[in-house]
Amino acid sequence: MHEFTPEVEALAAEILKYSLERLKDDPPLDGPRSAEDLFKEVGNTITAKGLGGHEALHVFTNVLAKACISTDHPRNLAFIPSAPSEYANLFDLVVGASSLYGGSWQEGAGAVFAENQAIKWLIDIAGLPQSAGGVFVQGGTMGNLSALVVARDQARKTHPDTQCWVIACSAESHSSITRSIPLPSLKKDCIFEESSPIS
User: Fold this and answer.
1) Domain boundaries defined on the chain
2) What is the pLDDT of residues 151-192, one digit of tens each?
3) Are 173 and 198 in contact (CB under 8 A)?
4) Is the dihedral of CA 177, 183, 189, 194 positive or negative?
């Protein structure tokens, strides 16, 4: 399972060929299909024997990928989780093949160092103090909530006499932002700023 056999090498060549063609070509828009429709075409993909790498790639590239909307298509104007460049997409292959974990310095000093440099760049652009810090998270749900809770706790410790805080965010901000604010305890003169109402 964890050996680079000739079969794995052949699959790697297929995967790299597909990936390069996908990066070079204009992105397909595609679109969703019903679960029933997809099952009729691919059947049960989880079996005791398994599909095997070649067949799994075939099912993905010819059926499943085409039942998804490519978020890098210029006509995709909603649900945009990322906008990676060609370099970023290629380095996703590198990072995946490298089997890295950047959760702590012990396991991923190099990855954490690179992340810290990117965060420092953003801090400098935003004009934040040298003491500012942060971490990149995948998605904006628990990551946002956790960061806001920690920031609020640290701010209260650093500025115990401050009774209210200003939060500037857009209408697209996740609901975790409003959930992390103790609204009933805010004074009437406290300001909650947003570009438009948060749902």
Assistant:
1) 6-80, 137-199
2) 878 888 888 887 776 666 666 666 656 665 654 444 444 444
3) yes
4) positive
pTM: 0.62
What are the φ and ψ backbone dihedral angles of 130, each rounded to 5 degrees? Answer: -60, -25
Contact criterion met (CB below 8 Å) for 34 and 80: no
Q: Are 41 and 63 in contact (CB under 8 A)?
A: yes
> How far, in Å, CA of 95 to CA of 115, rounded?
13
Rounded Cα–Cα distance for residues 61 and 20 (Å): 13
Instruction: Map residue 194 onto helix, strand or coil.
Output: strand
Residue with tokens 């790498």: 53
Contacts of 198 (CB under 8 A, 6+ apart): 169, 171, 173, 175, 177, 178
